[in-house]
Amino acid sequence: MTYIQHTRKSLPKMKLAALFSGGKDSTYSIYSARQSGHDVVCLITMKPKSDESMLFHYPDIWLVSYLAEAMKIPLLMKDTVSISFRDEFAELGQSIKKAVQIYKVEGIVHGGISSVFQKQAFENLCRSNGIVALTPLWNREPIEYMYELIRNHFEFIITRVSALGLDLQWLGKLVDIKSLEELLSLSKKNGFHISFEGGEAETLVVSCPLYHSKRLKITKWSVTWDHMSGILEISEAALVHV
User: Do the Cβ atoms of 39 and 14 come closer than 8 Å?
Assistant: First the structure.
């Protein structure tokens, strides 16, 4: 298959694997791919050893198994062996190759918005496997995108913060219209990226149209805070019917 770099242009309908973290961007990229008529047949999740990973989402990554169940999509999950970029890159390549072999995927969809480093890394892996790379969120206008998430009934909480202006109160907070207005004000004042593309925060989608009459209910958690950054560590959760 010829390698194609894709953003929002139309492509023939394909069987896709999605790089999935449970956060807003990876989840919304699946939604966008389906809206374009593609069939997302499996999820690929890499579980990094620490939050120092250059490629992968870290906080509460174990919850993706619940979210995969809610979406009724098979999950390929792999623990990484080290935090080096080279090792993470190689292990992701193994998982992509497995998805091609088992599910016959023709492409990978991921939720990159503006990180050229990550985009190029994922594109290189797709090229080496002879499949297509899809980035439906690439270069989206950040404020418009955040409002679009809420309009399309994506409910997500903040699980990690690491930026001036984002303090302890934001951990575990649901991003709705009211809190988004607060974030916009803080973003203008402190200069962080409103869609968190620079790593200022990470998110977890607890409810969205992809979940089959279910939502994620968090029942037990704790907070780790260190100077200007913190993580919401979820220890118990369950899928509940809605």
Answer: yes
